[in-house]
């Protein structure tokens, strides 16, 4: 079928270790990149800025969280707080005259330094205890951001984010802001794709599977946990800054509360731990499905003449949305990325019958 490996001989290591050794994968990636690059020319501006742009930013954030959960195997319920640190750092840097290109790097570095504190909790505890520790740190960060006027301006304050300026030129159009999000998402995706082939990626997987066994073979588990938390926090910090600069245009403490951390966690779990395509699917599912369910319920009631109360219309889409998540996880506990992988693996050898045995 499309993914047939005919002609791929695996005669050298470079070919075998290529990111996309199957031609169909390369054609699909190239086609998707062309569609993404041309999106401002064929897509409505409202859909571009309200749906596609936040999906790209949150996909990059989900990939950063997947680095902790899927690769290093460490729970993290304070991811939104780290994104908030990067957002506030970038806004304050820009308001003090720092160029945007440097401001987002400072945002990532600030988030990496503070986010590394979570790694010290991972050194002492693991599993559910680590989840509770990171959740506690999320609440600490929420309180600090809200009650320190030098950071947020106060509990009810809103900081207006300066316009993004690249090489001194202001980026204010919907297409320009979309391309900023697209480039960031592509960079994070490329990093994660290559991470799987590096010694760092293999060490993180070893720590995930059994940190004591990894220590026996010479893998310093604490060092690699620290690297994982710092790298993930850097991605989160830059992602938070880009989210504010391209989508919200203002920053408040409520934008990075514990609910947002749970939302990011849901993106990774629904998409699939350790799956890159799953992060795209999970982010799209969590962000876009509630609106789609609302539209579907409204269309259904109009078609069949149902009369539902306002309260029912407000809660029924969320109930169906939750049931849909449970259904997906019951069908495939490894997430949407695994469902895609199963379909792709089937097409690799279709129509030969021995794969059904």
Write the layout of secondary structure elements.
Blueprint: H1 13-16, H2 23-42, H3 45-71, H4 79-95, H5 100-115, H6 117-124, H7 128-147, H8 149-152, E1 159-160, E2 164-166, E3 169-171, H9 174-195, H10 199-209, H11 211-216, H12 221-248, E4 250-251, H13 258-271, H14 276-304, H15 310-331, H16 336-349
Antiparallel strand pairs: 1-4, 2-3
Helix pairs in contact: 3-9, 3-12, 3-13, 3-14, 4-5, 4-7, 4-12, 5-12, 6-7, 6-12, 9-12, 10-12, 13-14, 14-15, 14-16
Task: Could you tell me the CATH topology label.
Answer: ABC transporter involved in vitamin B12 uptake, BtuC
Which shape, going by the Cα principal axes?
globular
- C-alpha Rg, in Å? 22 Å
CATH architecture name: Orthogonal Bundle
Number of DSSP E strands: 4
Number of helices: 16
The helical percent reads: over 70%
Structural class: mainly alpha
CATH level 1 name: Mainly Alpha
Instruction: Please list the strands of the largest sheet in the order they lie side by side.
Output: 1-4
- Mean pLDDT equals 85
Q: Ranges with pLDDT <50 over ≥5 residues? A: none
Strand percent estimate: under 5%
Distance from first to last alpha carbon: 19 Å
What is the H/E order? Answer: HHHHHHHHEEEHHHHEHHHH
Counting structural domains, the number is: 1
Major sheet characteristics: 2 strands, antiparallel
């Amino acid at each position: 079928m499309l993914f047939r490996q005919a002609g791929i001989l695996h005669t050298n290591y470079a070919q075998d270790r290529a990111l996309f050794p199957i031609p169909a994968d390369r054609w699909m990636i190239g086609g998707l990149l062309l569609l993404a690059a041309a999106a401002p020319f064929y897509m409505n501006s409202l859909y571009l800025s309200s749906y596609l742009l936040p999906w790209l930013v949150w996909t990059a954030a989900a990939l950063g969280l997947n680095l902790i959960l899927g690769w290093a195997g460490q729970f993290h319920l304070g991811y939104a707080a780290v994104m908030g640190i990067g957002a506030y750092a970038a806004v304050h840097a820009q308001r003090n005259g720092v160029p945007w290109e440097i401001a987002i790097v400072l945002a990532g570095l600030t988030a990496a330094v503070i986010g590394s504190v979570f790694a010290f909790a991972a050194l002492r505890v693991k599993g559910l205890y680590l989840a509770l520790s990171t959740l506690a740190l999320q609440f600490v960060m929420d309180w600090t951001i809200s009650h320190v006027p030098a950071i947020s301006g106060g509990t009810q304050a809103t900081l207006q984010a300066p316009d993004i300026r690249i090489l001194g030129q202001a980026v204010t159009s919907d297409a320009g802001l979309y391309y900023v999000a697209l480039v960031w998402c592509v960079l994070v995706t490329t990093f994660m794709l290559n991470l799987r082939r590096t010694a760092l990626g293999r060490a993180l997987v070893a720590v995930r599977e059994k940190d004591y066994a990894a220590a026996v073979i010479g893998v310093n588990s604490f060092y690699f946990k620290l690297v994982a938390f710092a790298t993930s926090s850097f991605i989160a910090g830059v992602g938070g800054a880009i989210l504010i600069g391209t989508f919200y245009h203002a920053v408040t403490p409520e934008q990075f509360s514990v609910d947002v951390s749970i939302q990011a966690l849901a993106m990774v779990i629904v998409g699939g731990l350790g799956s890159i395509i799953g992060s795209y699917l999970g982010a799209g599912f969590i962000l876009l499905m509630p609106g789609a369910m609302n539209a579907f319920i409204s269309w259904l009631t109009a078609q069949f003449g149902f009369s539902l109360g306002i309260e029912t219309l407000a809660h029924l889409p969320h109930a169906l949305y939750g049931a849909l998540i449970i259904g997906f996880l019951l069908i495939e506990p490894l997430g949407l990325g695994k469902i895609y992988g199963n379909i792709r693996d089937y097409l690799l050898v279709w129509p030969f019958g021995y794969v059904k045995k």
